[in-house]
Amino acid sequence: MLRIIAARSASASGQIRIAQSARLLSTTIARFNVQNIPPSSVPPKPTVTPVIETPTPATPSTPSLSSSEPPIVEEPASPPPPPPKKTHRLRSLIILTILVTSLYGTGVWYSTVNDNFHDFFTEYVPLGEEVVMMLEEREFQRRFPNAGRKPTSDDSPRVTIHRGGATWKVIGDDYKGPSSGPHVSAKTPAPKKEAVAAAVPAAENKREPLVVKEPVLPKLPKFVFDGKIDPSLEGVVTSINNLFVVLSKTGAAGPEELGSIAASLGQVSDKFVSVKAKYEADLKSASELQIQLLTNQVAADAEETKKQLAALDEQWKQGFFAERQRLVVTYKQRLTNELKKIGSLFDTKVKNEVLSTDALKDKEFALQVYDKVENERSGRLAKLGEVKKAFDEVVELSKEVDKLLDLSEKTADLQLALGALSNALATPYPVPLAPLLARIKVAAGDDPLVASVIEAFPRSAYQGVQSPQQLAASFRLIAPEIRKVSLVPEDAGVAGFAGSWLLSKLLWKKEGKPVGGDVESILARAETALMEGEVEQAVREVNSLDGWRKKLADNWLTEGRKRSEVEFLAQVLSEEGKIWQYRV
Amino acid sequence: MSSAAIVKKTPSEQLLNDKWDVVVSNTIVKTALGFGFGVVASVFLFKRRAFPVWLGVGFGAGRGYSEGDAIFRGGDAGVRIVKS
Questions:
Q1: Which residue in A has a C-alpha nearest to residue B71's C-alpha?
Q2: Pairwise CA distance, residues A408 & A416, whole Å
Q3: Residue in A435, A411, A405 with CA at minimum distance from that of residue A423
Q4: Phi and psi angles of residue B76, each rounded to the nearest 5 degrees, phi first
Q5: CA–CA separation, B63 vs B55, rounded Å?
Q6: Local structure of A541: helix, strand or coil
């Protein structure tokens, strides 16, 4: 909207400018004219004045220009009166008609193109439906000129049905059913002549139903065979007779012509009969001749066959004898071969038996010799065996003595080493245990128990373990620390630790072996156990602490455990040493 | 020898003392920091009034306390361990 207004104002300003320039031009021209040309020769210019006098409604009047310039042309002659207005009625009527017609035509055309417009046009425009229908009908007719036309009567065959009721007709003896009549034409197209013949009497009968005209037929000759002919030709005879009847009815032939035809036909039939008899006789003689020939041939063939069979029999007999002879020879040869083989086998078997009996005899002889020699030896050298037995016993004894000596020596070594270990454990300061353990291992030899015990010694104990006195001293150092945290709850913060530190100072100290699971009792029991030298018991007590208490005693616990382990293992070793003593 | 002493592991009974050392020193440092911020704020912002100093000290001490709790519970909050 704003844009439109702006455009309008722009066009208005443009018009103002044009008007101004036109006015300037006209004034200068006018001045020029005034100055140079005598005023009488200057005619008033009606074409310029309207531009100056009537500016466009949008242009305001320009007072500066109009005031500055003298109004030279401002008062021309009054404008010419407008010409009388023509009505142009006829013209407008024609134009209107053309317009309406073309619009209507366009509407009709467009309604054939567009379905929606078709609906609109036929419904709302007067006479629209009729016009459109007419147009469509014409179009349809142009496209399909044959559409809608009824088929003519000659296009298809039709069935003629006569009026109902019985009709009468004079028939002769040779009547064989109706040739024409109601519905017969539907079955087969009847010959035209007959149809006409049937139709004409029917038509005549219709007109004169009571007048009867019987055609008078002359006596006809009949074509008859005398029974010599083949019965299959009787149908031909019947049809010929019918033909005669028809011909005589139509009047094409009279009894004379028919009689001559019948006579000639009789001759033909006689001839036919004689020819047939002749041919039958010929056929019979020929067949008899053929039978004779065939019989002779068969007899000759039988003789030939017999001869051939006899020759074949002879040949087979000879072959059979020859074959039998050959088989006999073959079997004989095979028999002799087998006999030879069996003989050679028997010979070898006998030879083997002889050889085996020889070998057995040799063996028996050797055994006898051996027995004799052994008897001789036991008799003379029996005492040598006894001496050897005694010597063996002495050797065994000496071995056992040696072993015992060795064992006792090892036992003594072991006892010494074990004594050194117990001494080392009894010292009030840590003594390295590794050399002592090595000595014990050497002394014990392959004793599995000692070996496994030495394996079980903790590696950290090789450098020595703290004595019970040392453990007691260090326990005295850590006990106050444990006491400080004796009241610390789980997951305590600054306040928990500070509170425990303060409040633990108010706790009663216990001594001896008090009963109870509180920290003070445990500490008292552990201290008592340490004073009694029972490191293991003290370790057990301290191990029952929990939380920060146990965490603070961790180092001490490790040392105590090490000490108790070593003590236990040393005890096991000393027990094993005692067993060794018993073994000796 | 001195390096060996440094390397030597803290004995178990000294664990808690070490923690106390860290907690106390941390609290002192944080309180001092709070005090310093309080003084600065007091001088520059609050015309030398006393309450910012107390506020700073309170913040510092509170932070030290809370970090101490965390240290005792196994964390290392507020403490930076510099390896020598």
A1: A493
A2: 12
A3: A435
A4: -130, 45
A5: 12
A6: helix
Q: DSSP per residue over A303-330, as a string?
A: HHHHHHHHHHHHHHHHHHHHHHHHHHHH
- What is the CB-side half-sphere exposure of residue A206 using CA atoms within 13 A? 9
Q: Which amino acid, one-letter code, is at A376? A: E
Give the tens place of pLDDT for each residue, A208-226: 445 445 455 555 666 665 5
Give phi and psi for A550, each to the nearest 5: -70, -35
How is chain B split among helix, strand and coil, in percent rounded to 5?
Answer: 75, 0, 25
CB nearest B69 (choices: A481, A493, A552): A493
Q: Exposed, middle or buried: residue A190 (CB in 10 Å: 0-12, 13-18, 19+)?
A: middle
Q: Is there a contact between A556 and B13 if contact means CB atoms under 8 Å apart?
A: yes
End-to-end C-alpha distance for chain A, whole angstroms: 135
CA distance to partner chain B, nearest, from residue A581 (Å)? 45
Percent of chain A past pLDDT 70, that is, above it, reads: 70
Cα dihedral sign, A121-A124-A128-A133: positive
pLDDT value of residue A445 = 79
> Among all chains, which residue has been given the structure tokens 């469509």?
A136
Q: Residues near A247 by Cβ (< 8 Å), separated by ≥ 6?
A: A253, A258
Question: Residue B15's closest chain A neighbor by CA?
Answer: A552
Report residue A180 as tokens.
Answer: 């024409």
Geometric angle at alpha carbon A60, from A57 and A61, rounded to 5°: 115
Question: Who contacts A59 (Cβ-Cβ below 8 Å, separation ≥6)?
Answer: A12, A15, A16, A19
Q: Say which residues have a Cβ less than 8 Å from residue A440's Cβ, sequence separation at least 6.
A: A414, A417, A418, A421, A450, A454, A573
Nearest to B13 among A478, A495, A497 (CB): A478
- pTM for the structure as a whole: 0.40
- Please give, rounded to a whole number of angstroms, the shortest distance from the CA of B20 to a CA of chain A: 9
ipTM of this complex: 0.83
Tokens of A410: 């090892």
